[in-house]
Amino acid sequence: MHLVVSFKYSFNLELAMSELKKYGYGEEKVLAIPMQPFHRSSTLTDMVSEDSASLFDIGLVLGTIGMLLGVIYGNLLTLGPVLWGLFGLLLGGGIGILIQILIYQKKKRTWMLPAHRQVILMIRLDEQDRIYELEEILKPYEPTGMATVEGRRGDNI
User: What is the dihedral of CA 1, 126, 36, 112, to 10 degrees?
Assistant: First the structure.
């Protein structure tokens, strides 16, 4: 039987492993597996956030405002309300999309902070009763998850 525990790579992991050694779970019974985070390139489709705001939301709003102002003040200008409305639409929409791209670039820089690496500990148990004891030992060290796995006889980690 195995107890599988996941931790963020931190000082708590080191403390948990030293605590396990105190209780007789040394290198022969504990396997630590560091997980590598995935890195992927971002695309324009990543600009859709969790609340379904898209790349064009600010552009559409500013384009509408620009078009409205162009039509209103186009009556006073020489080219007329239709052309000034189109100019306002293009100018407002372009400014809005530019603002959205700048916001996305700023968020992208904050998202590119180092990803938290995960470490999986697999602890081989001789007795099933020790699971609860080990869970109580490891809980103060803030594991991100725990599970038990039934192993076949003769399995070695």
Answer: 90
Pairwise CA distance, residues 85 & 72, whole Å: 8
Q: What is the pLDDT of residues 59-74, one digit of tens each?
A: 889 999 999 999 999 9
Give percent of the chain above pLDDT 70: 77
**Interatomic CA distance for residues 33 and 117, integer angstroms:** 11
Hey, how many other C-beta atoms are within 10 angstroms of the C-beta on 81?
Answer: 16
Whole-angstrom Cα distance, residue 30 to residue 17?
9
Would you kindly state where each structural domain of the chain is located, as residue ranges? 2-34+125-149, 55-111
Pairs from 126-134 (Cβ < 8 Å, separation ≥ 24): 128/1, 131/1, 131/3, 134/3, 134/20, 134/23, 134/25
- Partnered with residue 148 across adjacent β-strands are 3
Identify whether the C-beta of residue 83 lies closer than 8 Å to the C-beta of residue 68: no
